[in-house]
Amino acid sequence: MIKTKGKFVYEECDGVQVLFDPSGTPLMTDIPKDVDAQRFAVNACAGRILTAGLGLGLFAESVAAKDDVVSVLVIEKSQEVIDLINLQSPKISIVCGDIFVFLSSTKLRFDSAYFDIWPRSSRDIYEQVVLPLRGLASRVVKHIYCYKEAAMKRSL
Hints:
Largest sheet: 5 strands, parallel
Radius of gyration: 15 Å
CATH superfamily: Vaccinia Virus protein VP39
Number of domains: 1
CATH architecture: 3-Layer(aba) Sandwich
Order of helices and strands: EEEEHEHEHEHEHEH
Structural class: alpha/beta
Distance between the termini: 42 Å
Number of strands: 9
């Protein structure tokens, strides 16, 4: 099955889901390696959760299924991605917007956050994206978790 919305493509083939960006680069898959990379954050998050980057919605759905999670707010930059991905949990709300703008102005408070909005891990991503994002989020989030952050720190 293939679905498109604007320039984004969702494909499911042989039980594997993939979301492609406009350049054709995979943004997210549901292969075990990608699912396992989020497991630490799913296990650690509780209460009111903030996340950025919807992807396939795997993190949002997995964390929303936990009994100790009250709500999950997803900030997704692309309305096209939001339109492609169907989430089932009533605990999940999605807002179309930029996470940096959202964090700069929100008065909401969160118990945990998981951020996974970068396509690869590198020193530049850590310095230019992760650190500024952590700085903004620390104002409104108690516990912050970031995709591949430990690997990025080791590259410093």
